[in-house]
């Protein structure tokens, strides 16, 4: 009992905050040539992404100077943030594959998570660079509810008892998270005009707003409840390629559905969201395999 109390006291004195940083929702970014390593403007996008991550770190520490801040690079290869430019007060999680994907570094000790640079789910919007995990997945439905990266990551955090207290991205992404997490703070750094177009804030203005909102979110984190989904859960995934379906059904428990989209839809039942999340991550990886 004494050890438990000691741990609780340490957590209260030094909160642990995770900042998960994607790229598509960063101010100034609108096109795949900016978000992909072979794109002509990828270097600039990396710098913009790193600067917004740092703004969030600064906001967290404005509110809680003693906080333990983890930053998870959560875009593509998970090797986009410029390590030497990341705020030295934060710990950087980068590289893949890794446990819990975009939420690398999260566990039951984490007090709250911030989503920076996030985007709307596939098929929704208009939203800048809308997709769900990868182009291999057209939709993910959990007990019939369509969830994109925002919902899937929020639910995984919620499974661990961790609330999502802030999201930055375009206006569509902000609206998506507000439907899932009452009380979450949002920073719309751009207004989506289409898949590859937006009217955005100047990056410096976006960072200033993000820093202020991060501080407010951390200060008021007790007001936000985790987005938790109780199992067992039925998960349906619409896959873009027929050969990915052929690979997916090799996974124990994954089957083709009997519905109208059965040619491209697989389904499975998970006892809890942690398992559902891991199977979805596996399907993303299977979607990257091309026929020989």
UniProtKB/TrEMBL annotation:
Alphabetical list of CDD domains matching this protein: DAP_dppA_1
Pfam families: Peptidase_M55 (PF04951)
InterPro entries, alphabetized: DppA_N, Peptidase_M55, Peptidase_M55_sf
Name listed for the protein in its UniProt record: M55 family metallopeptidase
Source organism, top-level taxon: Bacteria
Organism: Streptomyces koyangensis
Matches recorded under SUPFAM superfamilies: Dipeptide transport protein
